[in-house]
Specification:
383 residues; single chain; binds flavin-adenine dinucleotide; five-stranded parallel sheet; alpha/beta; globular
Length: 383
């Protein structure tokens, strides 16, 4: 499932290609590019593979969240014969694949095709429904759903908590990318949502999300500076993305930490103050800790700041769901069978791990579908 997507966005260099025996001597086989080609070519030639429903069932299962975890779980359950409804709070299904990862890395018609495929499997996709607000999980059970899968992701952005962060022109990466990708803000006023980045944009962070934000801002015509408090070698982003960003003219400031955002008399961003860092002792993450160099403060003028320093699960659903156990960070706790603290409620993907990868979310969705099947068969045996 989703090969055209995985072929494009998975960090293959750490996954399948890292296992390739050829990498011990020379370069690994370019498995990602082959996967992408096979998926694109296969769909063009033969369409999506038809699937066999092997055991039609009258049981209804609700899947919440249509990112890679929810899509995969829905597809697997539908193939097993369950009646699946996929609830999504946004107006377009796909999760981060549609609102986060930009078009130039993952064309949206590919995600659309995958959603069409699961609709053809019989999955009823219901956008614009926020579980926890529109309906509670309890209501889903009352409506006859026998099991629920939560694949609600980690969409709540973390912030820097520095002075000036409330100024106009400061975006979380999440909001910025949603405006650009999903709402097509570059087409304002034809499209209702505006984005006005000005001449210079500063992006804070060193992961894929920071690089997607920087590369998207560059395409809006701005000078883009990316500041990261550690070194290039410590950046969590894929090497391929860093290379592409450099080629596109993104300016990198390593060992540079944000201090303060400055605003003009109208409350709009006019610049940002930084301090240079050096590497110190090893910290909890096992990496050398960046330590501020006294007196090394400096200022960069800019009209937009994009904060891309990580995301956590949105607490809305947990707050509305008594008995759903989470960690202190708001990560949903599951047992070895993907089940949460509520019987019949399963979870997987970023909401159970924190921000991770497409392939790990898909794996979690697939595993949960098998566990839901076992659970429902067991339930049927007992009644
Ligand atoms: P998500 O994709 O976050 O989907 C969750 C869905 O649930 C969303 O559509 C949300 O609207 C919906 N939802 C949330 N709450 C509710 C509710 N209460 N009711 C109904 N619906 C709800 N990974 C890679 O492997 N490679 C990459 O190159 C890569 N790049 C990335 C770039 C960006 C900008 C971001 C943000 C992430 C990137 N990732 C990448 C990470 C990857 O996209 C995520 O790990 C993955 O999408 C997680 O899948 P998920 O299904 O758990 O959640």
């Amino acid at each position: 499932y989703l090969p055209a997507i995985c072929g494009r966005v998975c960090p293959q260099e750490e996954q399948c290609e890292a296992m390739c025996v050829l990498s011990k001597k020379k370069m690994p086989i370019n498995i990602g590019a082959l996967e992408r080609y096979a998926a694109d070519h296969g769909v063009k030639k033969d369409g999506h593979p038809s699937s066999i429903v092997y055991r039609p069932s009258s049981d209804k299962v609700a899947v919440v969240g249509s990112g890679p975890a929810g899509l995969t779980c829905s597809a697997e359950l539908a193939k097993m014969g369950y009646r699946v409804t996929l609830f999504e709070s946004l107006h377009v299904p796909g999760g981060v694949l549609v609102y986060g990862i930009p078009e130039f890395r993952l064309p949206k018609n590919i995600v659309k095709e995958e959603v069409e495929y699961i609709k053809n499997l019989g999955v009823d996709v219901k956008p614009n429904i926020l579980i926890g607000k529109t309906f509670t999980i309890e209501q889903l059970f009352k409506d006859g759903y026998k099991a629920v899968f939560l694949g609600t992701g980690a969409g709540l952005p973390n912030f820097l908590n520095i002075d000036g962060e409330n100024a106009a022109g400061v975006y979380s990466a999440n909001e910025f990318l949603t405006r650009v990708n999903l709402m097509k803000a570059y087409g304002f006023p034809k499209n209702a949502t505006p984005v006005n980045v000005g001449n210079a944009v500063i992006v804070i962070g060193g992961g894929n999300v920071a690089l997607d934000s920087a590369r998207s801002a560059k395409r809006l015509g701005a000078r883009v500076v990316l500041a990261y408090r550690r070194t290039e070698a410590q950046m969590p982003a894929r090497a391929e993305e860093i290379e592409n960003a450099k080629e596109e003219g993104i300016e990198f400031l390593f060992l540079t930490a944000p201090k303060k955002i400055l605003a003009d008399e109208n409350g709009r961003v006019k610049g940002m103050e930084f301090i240079k860092m050096e590497l110190g002792d090893t910290d909890q993450s096992g990496r050398p800790r960046p330590v501020a160099i006294k007196g090394s403060d400096f200022l960069i003028e800019c009209q937009t700041v994009i904060v891309a320093i990580g995301q956590s699960p949105n607490p809305l659903l947990f707050k509305a769901t008594k008995d759903l156990k989470t960690t202190e960070e708001g990560i949903i706790m599951v047992d070895g069978h993907s089940m949460t603290s509520i019987p019949g409620v399963f979870a997987g993907g970023d909401v159970t791990t924190g921000a991770a990868t497409v392939i790990s979310a898909m794996g979690a969705g697939k595993k949960a579908a098998r566990e839901i099947d076992k659970y429902l068969l067991n339930l049927a045996d007992r009644s």
